[in-house]
Amino acid sequence: MPKILGLNKERQILPLQGGTLPGGRQPCNEIYHLFASSNQVLAVFSTRHFDAAKDWKRFLESLKLPSDHFSTVRQVHGAKAVTASPSLNPAGDLEADGMVTREPRLPLIIRTADCAPVFLFDPVTPAIGICHAGWRGAKAGIIERTVEKMKGEFGTSPARLEAAVGPAICVSCYEVGKEFKNDFPNFVVERDSRYYFDLVGEVKSQLYGCGVPEISVRESGFCTACSTDRFFSARREGRETGRLLSLLMLK
User: Fold this and answer.
1) Which of 88, 93, 162, 89 has its CA nearest to residue 125?
2) What is the pTM of this model?
């Protein structure tokens, strides 16, 4: 059974802004806090109340954080992880899909719309890492690279990491080609001559393979494609849809 975030997940309700969704539905005006029982780290993911294309400032201000002090990268579905600094901003050209830091009060932000945001927290050092893991990044090794970056930079032991997988497309919604079985043999399901990829299962398996204890790996329990009233989904809505924001910061 998946370990859902449960009591470590808290909702923050925000003032509703903007228009309605198709069918007159109201967009979800929430953000979710992970590792909520920890006073060392802030870890959140947004709903479609925020769009990464235009809502950086409002997202940060809703968390009572400075809107001009954070780190992000230009995501390319690769396997590069970097040590973060405040100079990594949306206008920057640094291509990477993972970031790590032990600097306090420096938010690390990634953007997703079906790919998995992966949060890593070392409470001993302390240090954090975050990465963007779709099927290309998972195949390329972004999760292992991010964990290895934390080990190399900060001496993090994977055995003491806490990890969380944020909202991502679920296996029932993620139809793929048969060739995926070659790259992900344990996480492609065949149903009625069709093939479906369990991205979250693959991400968790890779975390275990890096040495993160199974008991320390949680998942959000949200599917982006099943819940387009709450999240953006490139598979369901098209590649031009918005992007969710995931943020991780040492306090």
Assistant:
1) 162
2) 0.89
